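Q: Convert this sequence to structure tokens.
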Amino acid sequence: MRKLFLLLFLLPLLGSAQKKQISLEDIYKNGTFRGEFVPADFGQTTKDTDINPKELKDENGKTFDRFEDIIYSSTQPNTVLIRKGVEQIYRRSSKAFVYLYDALSKKLTKLDNEKLMHPTLSPDGSKIAYVKDNNLYLYDIATKSTRAITTDGKWNFIINGNCDWVYEEEFEFTQAYQWSPKGSYIAYYRFDESNVKEYQFTQFDNSYNKQYTYKYPKAGEENSKVEIHIYDVASNKDVKAQYEQGDIYIPRIKWTRDDNSLVVYWLNRHQDDLKLLLTNASTGASNTLYEEKNKYFVEINDDWWFLNDGQHFLFTSEMNGFRHLYLYSMDGKTQTQVTKGNYEVTDVNGVDEANKRIFFTLAYPRPMDRNLFVTDFNGKKTTQLTEGEAWHRIVLNDSFSRFYDYRSDLNTPQTVTLNEITVNKKKDIGVKLLKTVNESVKLKTKLDDFAIGKAEFIRVPNSKGDTLNGWLLKPPGFDPSKKYPVLFCNYGGPGSQQVANRYGAVSMWHQLLAERGFIVVSVDNTGTGFRGEEFKKKTYLQLGKFEIEDQIDAAKYLGNMSFVDKNNIGHWGWSYGGFMSSLAITKGNEVFSAAVAVAPVTSWRFYDNIYTERYMRTPQENAKGYDDNSPLNHTDMIKGKYLLIHGMADDNVHFQNATQMITALVKSNIDFESAYYPNKNHSISGQMDNTTFHLWSKMTNWIMDNLGNENTQKSNQPVKSQKAF
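A:
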């Protein structure tokens, strides 16, 4: 009996001691912690035709091995476009061979011998529009004929129907044309980038290399001149949309429900004045439908809906301090703020026009949470449909009667449920759980094999009187009598959020570092999102100033904790986060002893104008704001260790940022380490060539060597046993 008691007593200790150690191979090669994909299947029958690649033969009579994409017609289910051989261009753009497939005749037609961009079917399924060599084309399926809508397209000069680089990156779209609702018109962008300066980088190969040249407007430099054309499909004629010319942007075009009415979004260069111009498709004449001005800048997004009644439009705005929903009439006579309060609408999940209801997600009850709500068009009756301090990702069905809820929190993988939306006789809305679809059992079982720590939310006071949100992850088997090194993992850019109550916010790489004896922390500084406009836009005209001051305050706050080794506090970040890490090791030299900066901006003078000027205006207007917070101008302050990493084919944050930082470091006689990846863009990734694994191994080992102390352990050491009592 005594032996049995001792065995039962020791079991927790034995189980704890046998936990596996997370390896970089687990994360970046083997997919050990990959979650399950759970589609939102509402059991609806689909009219889309199933296509078997083995039944398809290309123009040479060879069977398709595979294809990457299928584009269906909403009106002609047997008319299908197939994209094969997809080639990525920039972040959102790609080109591919395009085939037209008739599911009835089983006939496959290759549209062109070259790769095409943005193939779309007309609303009636009778025509196909696409972009090739910077020109927009129209293919008639019945006559098998192609006509060129534009003919002046030329690389690095004129673009039709596709975005220039900076629009794609910063206004977040790439297809720059749209069919009207009935297909009578195609509205398209024409970019004249003749006067935009070129940027070059080297693409390395085994012979003489080659230069890649493209148009990239840096802060303060000239932009493309943008025209909006409206092409009449029947008459083969087009007109230009009429609007105030000058140094302006057109960040969106959207058709209303009227086939003859296009809305052109006009934005001044400072991005603090937005006008919606209701434009006649036949003449190009316009009048102002809506205007919004802001003392900082106006956010551009896709949250605009022109309702089926043709009389109203719904949109989100920060005009009253927090991002909320508004419903306006097209004639401007009624203007309703639908949602209110000191919480932010993060997503509009669905607009049920038949029942006049809007389903939306709110950052509630805390900025790091997400919950689903529904309200009427007047905003007088609002109901919360999901509960708790958690992250609910919602997918609604087309009839707004059911939804999938993908629920997780900081330490718990997602549980997926199918729910029914109920409405009683009093029109009260409720939710009924239909079934639990998935509880991430496989992932949870796998996680049980490893020493996984539980992160906790923290509230950090800064020196300005604000309280910052953060999370903190302690090592497994945490011993409060020891002192642990700390690594800050930070992005910190305008409107971003890393401190989120969802699974994955604390990554498995964070867990690996914690397992090896680090305290890992993330703090959302001033300028981050979902806490209202003033908190987000406080950094206006001085990017980096308040952000790094907050990170320094947070490091001092943690440094005063008894279990923190205040002499070993590091900072890691990528892109904007790399900018922050470079400021941490310079301006934050008294508290940060090491920093890893991946693909950092080192001067906002080198970055594109749409993003940078939104927050900083131009260098000509705000030289001090650009220079006071550039890491280039503070390298002489560095006391600690600095690792600089960059992709040499980064089309977004140019490798120039790294070279200029190195020049400044050398001038200040500062020792540093660096790693550069040829032919790699901003993501510095690649499985087949081992880039991803190499990069994360490099950073992990460097952090261990330069930030570790007597309480950290190398990867080949066993995981320290957790205390069982």
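Confidence is low (pLDDT under 50) at residues 1-16, 717-725.
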